[in-house]
Specification:
single chain, alpha+beta, 7-stranded mixed sheet, 5-stranded antiparallel sheet, 14 helices, 36 strands
Length: about 550
């Protein structure tokens, strides 16, 4: 029977001359496919012989223009970033995805330490009574909490399985942390006594758990990894300065490492963090025009200090409550990076965060040919080993070592390797074969621009340095230009409904939660930010016609 076309690129292998025991066959005119499986049975007409043929499946992603959401899911899966867990609503972060997370974590850790913060760790389990102490906080998180009620299991009386021991009920239920303010401020009560103990600048890296019914890898899962900062201060002004400063740190990271250009500003009153006076947010635009809340920094005022009775003696020898902030970014940043920087071939990694900057793919048939290639590129490898990349920023001053590998796996075709590394977004791929050795060249493929060129081997490291910085800058410029060209200013609700389909919208609103809810119900758009530096401007709410003094940013969001 004739072999049907599929949505994948298949390489057929049979014979004996390949290093893995197979010969790549590209012309299949003399073969008839008997069974489309792995292995495939092929019948060769002119010899009346049947061959077992093993196949390599090449991922072909859904085009962005056809189904942006599906394409995102395919990249996460095919690039080996994450997968669904046996635990419903949770995910498994695979090694390549976790390597991206480690790079983000390590860079942010240095940025925090450069601003005077130190790391600590607090318990996963929080006594239920702690959540009761801050009314807004418990009201917001109550429906998202997982609760530990018992401390022991036992075999059932019929020996058919394990059950919860009813005699092991906890005196007080424990909440698996949805966030850590309450458990941390309980500790701060014993740490803070005088203005000399302030400011207290603590950072924690942890997992949190919030019940999610509709999940998406990295963007929204019940358990996720995050960084959260919790600081204590001697004045309201100092606390607000801290909250804004850490928003600037997040913006620095987004701009110079993630290569995205977000909008910054306070959240509206009805959308701030539970228990905060002000929530400042980082809101970048994804390629489908939607916003992603990529990070938040909260001025908590004295709310949590009052809830946990954390007082200090100020420099006037007066007793008052401490002023607080908190902040956080999570593995959601990985999802934002995927959506901001990907094309129809897969992920495009910003070089500043890439787990792998350069992959070298030798083209060889025998171990002897591979050895010749490795000898040929050895001077290049020696230069790679000492190469440091300078992606420094306002809050990050370190150099990043160039990360590289040689893929000498003889059991996978070159085409399969090319497909994999494009999916993973590796910034540079170098291909070396016998012809390249003879000409003193190598072939260099640049992922961000999809350009391929032949370069003299002694000049490769110079080209790579230049390209990595150029690629980083190009990705930022593309994201910034896309946001700017997809941000619209409107004055009527009809204009609003048209433009919200295309991106961000700046419009007047009356400031009430009721109007915000009605606009959300009708258009799925919310107020994302009361944008910094947005000028005062008299106008009318696009929905109610009531007076307004400033435009705000609306968008649909993840």
């Amino acid at each position: 029977m004739a072999r049907k076309k599929s949505s994948f690129w298949w390489l057929f292998r049979a014979g004996k001359s390949h290093p893995s025991g197979a010969l790549e066959i590209y012309i299949l005119n003399n073969f008839i496919s008997i069974l489309l499986d792995n292995p495939v049975l092929l019948y060769k007409k002119n010899t009346n012989k049947i061959y077992y043929v093993y196949t390599e499946k090449m991922a072909k992603l859904t085009p962005r223009s056809k189904d942006y959401s599906q394409r995102y899911n395919e990249i996460v899966q095919e690039a080996g970033l994450a997968e669904s867990s046996a635990v419903r609503w949770c995910m498994v972060i695979k090694p390549y995805g976790f390597a991206i997370r480690e790079n983000m974590r390590d860079i942010l850790d240095k940025m925090f330490k450069n601003t005077g913060h130190v790391n600590a760790y607090f318990p996963l389990l929080i006594p239920k009574s702690f959540l009761n102490k801050e009314a807004q906080h418990v009201e917001h998180f109550a429906k998202e909490c997982a609760i530990v009620t018992h401390y022991r299991l036992k075999n059932s009386s019929d020996w058919k399985g394990i059950i919860v021991d009813p005699e092991a009920k906890l005196d007080e239920e424990l909440i698996i942390r949805p966030t850590s303010e309450t458990i941390i401020w309980n500790s701060y009560k014993s740490w803070i006594h005088s203005y000399r103990d302030l400011p207290l600048l603590i950072n924690q890296r942890a997992n949190v758990l919030r019940r999610e019914m509709r999940t998406r890898m990295f963007l929204r899962t019940s358990e996720f990894l995050r960084q959260e900062g919790h600081t204590a201060h001697a004045s309201a002004e100092e606390a607000d300065t801290e909250a804004r400063k850490m928003l600037d740190v997040y913006n620095d990271f987004a701009t110079n490492f993630m290569a995205i250009s977000p909008v910054l500003g306070p959240k509206p009153e009805h959308d701030k963090f539970a228990g905060a006076l002000t929530t400042y947010a980082v809101e970048p635009m994804m390629q489908d025009g939607k916003a992603l809340q990529a990070g938040t920094s909260h001025n908590l005022g004295q709310n949590f200090a009052k809830a946990f009775d954390v007082k200090f003696t100020n420099d006037k020898n007066e007793l008052e409550f401490v002023y607080a902030t908190s902040r956080g970014v999570s593995t959601r940043l990985i999802g934002g990076m995927i959506m901001a920087h990907s094309d129809d071939a897969g992920l495009v990694m910003p070089p500043a965060l890439a787990p792998l900057h350069v992959v070298i793919v030798p083209i060889f048939k025998t171990p002897e040919e591979l050895q010749l290639i490795k000898e040929y590129i050895q001077p290049l490898i020696e230069r790679f080993e000492v190469t440091k990349l300078d992606f420094h920023s306002k809050y990050f001053k370190d150099l990043i070592p160039l990360k590289w590998k040689i893929d000498e796996d003889a059991h996978r075709s070159a085409g399969r390797k090319f497909n994999e590394y494009e999916l993973k977004g590796v910034p540079i791929r170098i291909t070396v074969g016998a012809r390249d050795i003879a000409s003193g060249m190598v072939e260099v493929f640049k992922r961000e621009s999809s350009e391929k060129s032949a370069i003299k081997i002694e000049e490769v490291d110079l080209h790579i340095d230049q390209y990595l910085y150029k690629a980083q800058n190009n990705l930022f410029k593309k994201n910034k230009e896309f946001r700017e060209t997809h941000t619209f200013t409107v004055d009527t609700y009809e204009q609003f409904k048209e433009k919200i389909e295309q991106g961000f919208v700046l419009a007047h609103r009356d400031g009430t939660a009721e109007t915000a809810d009605k606009i959300k119900d009708e258009t799925a758009a919310t107020v994302r930010s009361l944008v910094f530096d947005q000028p005062d401007e008299a106008g009318k709410c696009i929905y109610t016609g009531k007076s307004s003094t400033k435009r705000v940013l609306f968008a649909r969001s993840y």
